[in-house]
Amino acid sequence: MTGAHRRILVVEDDPETAGQLVEELTTSGYDVDLAANGREALSQGAARDYAVITIDRMLPDIDGITVMRQMRDGGIAVPFLIISALGEIDDRVRGLRAGGDDYLVKPFSFVELLARLEALGRRSETVAKETILRVGDLAIDLISRTASRRSRKIPLLPKEFQLLEYLARNEGRVVSRAMLLRHVWDLHFDPSTNIIDVYVGRLRRKVDDQQAYPLIHTIRGIGYGLRAPG
After folding, report:
1. H/E element, 54
2. What residues are paired with 176 via a beta bridge?
3. Which of 24, 48, 63, 155 is found 20 to 30 A from 200 (Cα to Cα)?
């Protein structure tokens, strides 16, 4: 894992175990956040992007299985590594079927933990490259056909999503109205139509309003472009 893909969320209620995990992972070069219970895990998992989440099955409020299911239902696709003292075959099968990607039984070797995290992190990067388009803090999920900024979902109609996807695939380029009509609406250029301006205006309000910086830019007399600052 490299760069932003080295952030891990550790969900562990035992202070001693949590402290050891955070210390060892930080020493190994990871950025680590800690959640001491299920509610904290749900809150942090929805607020940030993680390469991997390690989660204990036995939490004091919401059990780890329920936390994973709720995150999966909420569209969070990050890999889960279950770390648990429950090591029977039925326990492992239940954890994996509930949305876990790997299962590590306590006590465990930290070397093995690192190896499993690296494997899950590589899988996470591959999936992200294949299914997510990113421009600045905008994330476009090509599988679920959803978009978000800073993890806040943007409600989009199907044609609005197509328009945003086309702009994102041409990040940093000027896209003319004729190109948008042809590739998004499958229409030939019609100088009398204002459909592009209407949809771009609607999309801009959804994507850029109350955000730190605008992503959709108008190039007068030519068309539009999607780009982040910097």
Report:
1. strand 52-55
2. 223
3. 48
